[in-house]
Amino acid sequence: MKTINQIQDEIIAEFAVFDDWMDKYALLIEMGNELPPLDAQYKTPGNLIEGCQSRVWLQADYVDGKVMFQGESDAVIVKGIVSLLIRVLSGHTPDEILTADLYFIEAIGLKEHLSPTRSNGLVSMLKQMKLYALAFKSKSAN
């Protein structure tokens, strides 16, 4: 299993191939399209992320001490962002998720190329993923 940082470095390398932001957006959209569709049973108001302009659902499950994320969005760019966050954080322990420094977001230039509403959405998604990790951590401690 790769570490969170190894996965981030892979993503940085994939985006480094392109200089043009239109190409990077195309890669992001392609990544979003590769995201498996979220089962309808998880598309609940409770799984909707607050603070996103488009609709984003995030499902988290705790399996063998690791947090498994699934997600979907009805906007193509946002779906790409969801797929990146899931790729980086899913399959790791709550502690790994809570202590992760997600430097890839800035390194690939995502931060500066997102509209303010999408940036807020990204922050909201990350916050929600860390909240899930925290909840699983405190549950498993009992």
Mean pLDDT: 94
**N- to C-terminal distance:** 27 Å
Low-confidence stretches: none
Q: Work out the number of β strands.
A: 2
Radius of gyration: 15 Å
SSE succession: HHEEHHHHH
Provide the structure class.
mainly alpha
Strand order of the largest sheet: 1-2
CATH fold label:
Sufe protein. Chain: A
Total of helices: 7
- Portion of residues in beta strands equals 5-15%
Output the CATH class name: Alpha Beta
The total domain count is: 1
The portion of residues assigned to helices is 55-70%
Can you characterise this structure?
By secondary structure, this protein is mainly α. The protein has a single domain (4-136), classed as Sufe protein. Chain: A. The chain is 56% helix and 11% strand. It is built from seven helices and two strands; from the N terminus they run H-H-E-E-H-H-H-H-H. The protein has a two-stranded antiparallel sheet with strand order 1-2. It is globular, with a radius of gyration of 15 Å. The two termini are 27 Å apart. The mean pLDDT is 94.
Offer a few descriptive terms.
142 residues; mainly alpha; two-stranded antiparallel ribbon; 2 strands
Note the topology.
Layout: H1 4-16, H2 21-33, E1 56-63, E2 66-73, H3 76-89, H4 94-99, H5 104-107, H6 110-113, H7 116-141
Antiparallel strand pairs: 1-2
Short description:
With 142 residues, this protein is mostly helical.
